[in-house]
Amino acid sequence: MANNINVASFVLVHTGGHGAWSWYKIAVLMKSSGHNVTALDLGASGNNPKQALDIPSFSDYLSPLMEFMASLPLDKNVVLVGHSLR
């Protein structure tokens, strides 16, 4: 386990057509190094229960990420890591 001074918190965001599952291997490695890791399923992706027709805008697609980030304490620092949608 990493020294608590060096522990970071990461939020992993998948690309279009994927889900949190796409981060599985790296998330396991990061967690085994002692880091805090959260991988999210965006709207209608992975285990997110919404269907594609329930996501009329990019804002709706990102709502799981925005809700998670809003739930964090204001003094919580995280490293946001994402795939490109291109």
Automatic annotation (TrEMBL):
SUPFAM superfamilies: alpha/beta-Hydrolases. It holds the Pfam family Abhydrolase_6. GO terms for molecular function: methyl indole-3-acetate esterase activity; methyl jasmonate esterase activity; methyl salicylate esterase activity. Residues 10-85 form the AB hydrolase-1 domain. It comes from the Eukaryota. InterPro entries: AB_hydrolase_1, AB_hydrolase_fold, MES/HNL. One of its GO terms (biological process) is salicylic acid metabolic process. This is AB hydrolase-1 domain-containing protein. It comes from Solanum verrucosum.
